[in-house]
Write a structure and sequence with these properties.
The chain is an alpha+beta fold. The chain is built from 5 helices and 17 strands. The chain has a 17-stranded mixed sheet that branches. The longest helix has 13 residues.
């Protein structure tokens, strides 16, 4: 029996597992069984599993496995959940910490007020802006898309009315388009003002999710590059809102938002 914690960031939910007392065989078994663990009707139910591992270059290492068993470089909502969890469970003692991820070391800071963790602020690093906007077509839709990487690939599509978008219909084809050799998270974004934007997300490896932290960062960057959004912006997702700031001096993107630990349990593999 192995202990786990269920957590979510704006409804983007995860199974958190401390691997400190697990063998490599047990860790591999968890990864192999991730789709079953994440199945909402026959398992715990989640968008992914996050493993806590030792690190030689940071306070701790975070490894994310999507609900389909694939492994992304990073997860924005996941790192907030992970940071809160490792602090509250004593795996990391400082509320300002370093976490090794697939995109390098990132630096969350827990914002504590009246002895409670109010929000988590994360230095998400620099965006990767190698590609220009382009037009792509699938059998279901043709769109103008802006490729942005936050260590993991995203495609941003501006939309005047999000209610007209059927993510289940168009998301899979866009996410797996040949433009994205490693697949991509797809964000449809509706700008409300230069300070606020609504976003819906199709995540590679997880499908339609309530929120995507790296996606919120990517949308903000795309909007700033096209002079549609200010440097500090509120990104509204189906599960709630994130505050994103792209710092002009450092070129780093900062994400601030909540994370909730829901319950603890034990699982058998």
């Amino acid at each position: 029996m192995m202990s786990f914690t269920k957590a979510h960031g704006l409804g983007n939910d995860f199974i958190l597992i401390d691997t400190a007392h697990l063998t490599d065989t047990q860790i591999n078994a968890i990864i192999q069984h991730t789709p079953a663990l994440c199945a909402r009707h026959i398992g715990i139910g989640a968008d992914g599993v996050i493993l806590a591992l030792p690190s030689t270059i940071a306070d701790i290492k975070m490894r994310v496995i999507n609900s389909d068993g694939s492994e992304p470089e990073m997860c924005g909502n996941g790192i907030r959940c992970f940071a809160k969890w490792v602090y509250l469970t004593g795996q990391v003692l400082n509320p300002s910490m370093s976490i090794e991820t697939g995109r390098g070391i990132l630096y969350p800071e827990l914002i504590i007020e009246n002895d409670k963790i109010k929000t988590i602020k994360v230095d998400m690093g620099e965006p990767i802006l190698d590609d220009q906007p382009l037009t792509i077509s699938t059998p279901k839709i043709t769109v103008d898309i802006i490729p942005i990487s936050m260590g993991n690939p995203h495609g941003i599509i501006w939309q005047t009315d999000l209610s007209k978008i059927d993510l289940d219909l168009v998301g899979p084809g866009l996410s797996t388009h040949a433009t994205f050799p490693n697949q991509a998270n797809i964000e449809f974004a509706q700008i409300l003002s230069k300070n606020e934007v609504n976003v819906i997300v199709w995540e590679r490896g997880a499908g339609k999710t309530m929120a995507c932290g790296t996606g919120a960062c990517a949308v903000a960057v795309a909007g700033i590059l096209q002079n549609k959004l200010n440097r500090t912006v509120k990104v509204n997702l189906p599960g709630g809102s994130l505050d994103i700031h792209w710092d002009e001096e450092t070129n780093h993107v900062w994400m601030t938002g909540p994370a909730e630990l829901v319950y603890e349990g034990k699982l058998a593999l």
